[in-house]
Fold Probable RNA 2'-phosphotransferase.
Amino acid sequence: MISEKQIIHISKFLSLVLRHQPETIGIQLDQNGWTDVDDLIEKANNYGIKFDRETLIHIVATNAKKRFAFNDTFDKIRASQGHSIEIELGYTNHKPPEILFHGTAEKFVKSILDTGLEKRNRQHVHLSSDLETAIKVGQRHGKPFVFEVFAKQMYNDNFQFYISDNSVWLTDNVPTKYLKQNDK
């Protein structure tokens, strides 16, 4: 069986090629971000990242953040969100809960208070429906800091919200007037 360390290595590699740089191994993503599973496995193995279909299924099924998804016939795979390349994930506008959360590092708070939350090189701003997830996201970049986002108010003001396959809330930007510094 494959080790946990190898699973993490392969998962990070999949994030790279399915979200940001498919050209690294010469795969093509269609307009919705899907690529052929057999082609992905073959080209990853040729690149030196060794795994098989069984390992790929295991990674998709056990990834705590549900970063990847198969189509209904399991012959195509894509990243659920977080792309820095232009694709259309086919999400429809959804009414969000009243409050969503955005986790970041304390070092980014001043910039966010100046400009709001911006998607920058990604397709969307990522928001979570629970505080715990936002804290975990913020910890990846330093001491965590969480903003509350007045999502329902934004929605009522004609901002669009989407929810990814792995339950991450997505929007194009969050102006500062919809942000509150979380005291928790």
In short: The mean pLDDT is 91. The radius of gyration is 18 Å. The domain at 4-79 is CATH 1.10.10.970 (Arc Repressor Mutant, subunit A).
